[in-house]
Design brief:
Pfam families: AMP-binding (PF00501), AMP-binding_C (PF13193). There is one protein chain. The longest helix is centred in the first third of the chain and has 19 residues, at 42-60. Helices cover 30% and strands 24% of the residues. It folds into three domains: 13-197, ANL, N-terminal domain (Rossmann fold), CATH 3.40.50; 255-435, Rossmann fold; 439-542, ANL, C-terminal domain (GMP Synthetase, Chain A, domain 3), CATH 3.30.300.30. It starts with 12 loop residues before the first helix and ends with a helix. The protein is of the alpha/beta class. α2 crosses α3 (76-87). Bound molecules: adenosine monophosphate. The site of adenosine monophosphate has 18 residues, from β14, β19 and β20.
Length: 544
Amino acid sequence: MRGQMMDTQLLIAPLIRNAARFHGDVEIVSRTCEGPIHRYTYADAYKRVQQLANALASRFGIAMGDRVGTLAWNGYRHFEAYFAVSGMGAILHTINPRLFLEQIEYIVNHAEDRVILVDLTFVPIIEKLIGKIPTVEAVVIMTDRANMPETSIPNAICYEELIADQSDSYDFPSFDENTASSLCYTSGTTGNPKGVLYSHRSNVLHSYGVCMTDTLGISATDAVLPVVPMFHVNAWGLPYACPMVGAKLIFPGPRLDGPGLAELIEMERPTVLAGVPTVWLALLNHLDEIGRRMEGVRIAVVGGSAAPESMIRKFQEKHGTFLLHAWGMTELSPIGTACTFKAKHLSLDQEAKYKLQTKIGKPAYGVEMRITDDEGNELPNDGVAFGHLKVRGPWVLKSYFRRDDENILDEDGWFDTGDIATVDQDGYAQIVDRAKDVIKSGGEWISSIDLENAAVGHPDVKEAAVIGVAHPKWQERPLLLVIRREGATLDKQGMLDYLETKVVKWWLPDDVIFVEELPHTATGKLLKLKLREAYGDWLMKQAG
Ligand code: AMP
């Protein structure tokens, strides 16, 4: 017997419609690429969302299922694209501009983007790709006529001119909530990036999950500053979650540095911040330098890589801000866990609370989590046993975009996150290591395997190993260990000069150490754990 409740679909357009109707006067504030601060309201945003939808339909014939790419910072025009594109039933493909140019070319072609909306900063990227991305029929530069750049992009269109004459009324259709809404590519350790195709349903459920008090607890009384980019896992879903509850949004645009953020925080008084540890490190250092205390920031959400205890302490003791440790990944929309307290934790002393906060917390309702051994047997939740962290739930992917034939789930339908973790009796998880040794530099991926492969391409290199080691600014940076071929004279500079021709500059190892031998496992694989034990603090020691 079926239930007799309404079959209303969980769609993205109603999020902004609802915000315009019930929180119409709430502000969205953006630092722009052009320079000035822009401010308007949810009511204003909704009108422009509808103008953009009309423009995409009438000028380019964008329809259900078409992919529209964006290469943009966190800002109001990008926000408009989030709702116009998905609202029409088309698919918003947020492109990470920090990817290698060849990877951007690959993903634009793989996604078959028809239109790309690009911020001023990233126009040079598209200029380099012209002629190599045949599916792209139009490029829209997200600015006004006065700021349109000189560009070699043929027939580049000005965003403000594109939407200017369009009606601010668009009848967003209703359709199956399982329809694809947005697409985000992961930059994995090997091979080409893989696409994660979200649905309207997954994004709306994820928004409910994010707003729950025991997750990020966002409400209509909050002002939220997402420093996490809208080009990397939808800025942790905040552009959807904030309109769901009517929270003010503050977008930092291209200024993600300490002084830029401190100024924005002082001006706009956010109650919630969200970003990776590197960003908070820069902000805290700057606030120290200028001797300023943040006022009114209730929580700073941190994720993407592990938050050190020193950071948790500093936020609390200097700024009265609770550092809320969260964990997630592109494949999870992205939030999986959040380290909020239970009633019994409230009476813990401060030191014990800090200790707890170093964990990634418990799963948001909707995400199921377990750890297994290599054979897939479930391990105990005792806070000691560690194993493969696996998840399932309505906002976890089941297959990658256009790789439907590859089964990525285990026999019981769980997705292996690639992380190694413990889970304690209360369900709080802690990341022990990444199964694949990927290096996280400032919240971005660096593939140790790709770097090793590049290094061994040099004729003087016999074997190479790359590990991520602690760095005072970037959290982690690559360290390269090399065994030279007999008689070879290769030095550090020669190695780096060679690598510079093979990888993007920010991937270059911070140091190169020449060794006589490298440790291996029984099956001949590099034993990186051992290398990390030996060299983990190499750069910290050098920095003094
Ligand atoms: P991405 O898909 O780029 O968001 O990266 C996801 C990966 O980042 C996860 O699988 C983890 O390895 C790592 N990660 C995310 N949050 C945390 C955290 N709080 N602590 C440690 N690692 C994290």
